Amino acid sequence: MFGRILKRLGHRPWFAAAARRVVRLDRWLQHRSKGRIVPINAAGVNTLLLTTTGRRSGQPRSQPLLFVRDGDDFIVIGSNWGQAHHPAWTSNLLADPRCAITWKKQELQATAALVRDDERARLLDVLIASWPAYSTYQERAAGREIRIFRLRGI
């Protein structure tokens, strides 16, 4: 029930602004608890904590993200709540595709690949089925093609 309400509210501009603040808290709690406490999961969506290497700083950067599974792979989307610019973590993955995933209290090493063409269209449909507001975020993104990544464990 709560998840359905949030999925409906996800299309609202004020929701994206508020959710960006909640994500900071979620990131902190997931990091401190090593994945044991994941507040966003209360919304009925699947989340992971993605850790990339900062392309300029070289430091680890973590971001909680919604995901869907495609076989054994994790699929994530750089919607950035429909903002006009790409989220930093997507540029980090383009610079260095090695990453870590914290999911279900486990840390997995993975590599990322940008998804393109027909596969992108198929996975975008799957992502929208999981979080319908992704379609609204694409409209708001001012012509920016939202990046989708396949994360594959190594």
Automatic annotation (TrEMBL):
GO CC field: plasma membrane
A Pfam family assignment: F420H2_quin_red
Molecular function per GO: coenzyme F420 binding; oxidoreductase activity
Catalysis performed (reactions): oxidized coenzyme F420-(gamma-L-Glu)(n) + a quinol + H(+) = reduced coenzyme F420-(gamma-L-Glu)(n) + a quinone
Family: Belongs to the F420H(2)-dependent quinone reductase family.
UniProt protein name: Nitroreductase family deazaflavin-dependent oxidoreductase
UniProt organism field: Dactylosporangium siamense
